[in-house]
Write a structure and sequence with these properties.
By secondary structure, the protein is an alpha+beta fold. It is 52% helix and 16% strand. It is built from twelve helices and eleven strands. The chain has a nine-stranded mixed β-sheet with strand order 1-2-8-7-6-3-4-5-9. Helix 7 runs antiparallel to helix 9. 29% of the residues are buried.
Length: 360
């Protein structure tokens, strides 16, 4: 039969709670269904699949869940096959159960010097001796229950970053998927940009035409190509929302992608002479000129040539006006590409760091 004793220190704010046969942090568990944020740090988790992990999994459907834990039986060095095998089993068990790929909104980190025990939501916090495990119910455990947003916020703002910062983030197999996604998004963007480049640039030179220049005399830019680029840029922002900003521990990777520059590209495409050039149809413009003139049949050939020349002049003028914005556009696209490379490099770093978890 379990028993919990509560000793008020500051009524309604801070209590000492001591228990045996019950979870020392039961009051925090009771708040999981109401929570938007949950943080747990523990020396170990349950040896078997437990109700505690199920509670975290259930809460992860509506709350941001972060857990930092040690791994018992894992050591810096192993002296003999048996300790190494025990460590390998323990590491596999922990990484499998806490794989964020199996939990929605779960962020996992391992800290091999951690012996802290904290269980908290944004409303209530427990700091004490009890691990986040069923086994902790068997022992006499004692800790503090802290209530109220202001007090809990002090813990969240000051203690939690220390505990998270000392851990090695664990992402399971998702890092390779994230790198593939970034490569795919970058490839799509570059493909759309290449179409625009083909329409605006040409090659000259003798005997080899190997010098690329802006085609000021005969550009064939289309609104379809610009809209396709904007669509790819919008897809980047949407995928960052879905695949990075909502994944605990990967939020900073999305910040490496240069969204400010992406927005500048959108602006330069739609609010500069570039889009006006793309919208311009020389044949239509010449036809409109002819329709606005009173031309006798015998003068039609001369008038048609005049309208065609004026349309060509208009297109040339638009191309001249668009030349600098076009160059800026491709400079900005190159900057976005570099930001993608920085994000992939960070994913590589996280992958190498994660590999250190299993040292067997």
């Amino acid at each position: 039969m379990g028993k919990t004793t509560i000793i008020p220190l500051i009524p309604g704010q801070i209590d000492i709670v001591t228990s045996v046969g019950e979870f020392n942090f039961q009051e925090v568990l009771d708040d999981f269904p109401n929570a938007e944020k949950i943080f747990v740090t523990t020396y170990n988790i349950s040896a078997q699949r437990s109700k505690l992990l199920q509670a975290l999994e259930d809460a992860a459907t509506h709350a941001e869940v972060r857990i930092v834990t040690n791994i018992p039986d894992r050591y810096d060095q192993y002296y003999g096959r048996a300790p190494r095998e025990r460590a390998a089993e323990s590491i596999e068990r922990y990484t499998e159960r806490l794989d964020p790929g199996q939990f929605e909104s779960l962020a996992t980190a391992f800290n091999f010097k951690n012996h802290s025990k904290v269980v908290m939501t944004e409303n209530i916090a427990y700091i004490g001796s009890a691990n986040f495990s069923d086994e902790s119910k068997r022992s006499r455990e004692t800790g503090f229950i802290i209530r109220g947003h202001d007090l809990v916020a002090k813990i969240s703002d000051n203690l939690v970053p220390i505990l998270i910062g000392e851990g090695i983030p664990y992402f399971g197999g998702m890092l390779d998927d994230k790198k593939l996604l970034l490569s795919y998004l970058l490839s799509r963007m570059e493909g759309a940009a290449s179409t625009i480049r083909d329409e605006l640039f040409t090659f000259v030179g003798h005997p080899l035409e190997d010098i690329e220049i802006y085609n000021i005399h005969d550009p064939w830019l289309t609104t379809k190509s610009i809209d396709a680029l904007i669509e790819e840029l919008d897809a980047i922002d949407a995928e960052l929302d879905n695949e990075f900003r909502t994944v605990g521990g990967l939020e900073h990777v999305s910040e490496l992608i240069d969204i400010d520059t992406i927005n500048k590209i959108k602006d330069i495409c739609y609010s500069s002479p570039i889009y006006e050039l793309a919208e311009f149809d020389a044949v239509e413009h010449a036809g409109n000129l002819l329709s606005s003139w009173s031309v006798h049949n015998e003068d039609m050939n001369d008038a048609s040539q005049t309208a065609t020349d004026r349309a060509a002049d208009k297109q040339y003028d638009l191309a001249v006006e668009a030349e600098e914005p076009v160059k800026k556009l491709f400079d900005l696209l190159e900057r976005v590409k570099e930001s993608f490379q920085a994000a992939v490099k960070e994913l590589d770093r996280l992958e190498k760091q994660q590999a250190k978890i299993d040292n067997t």
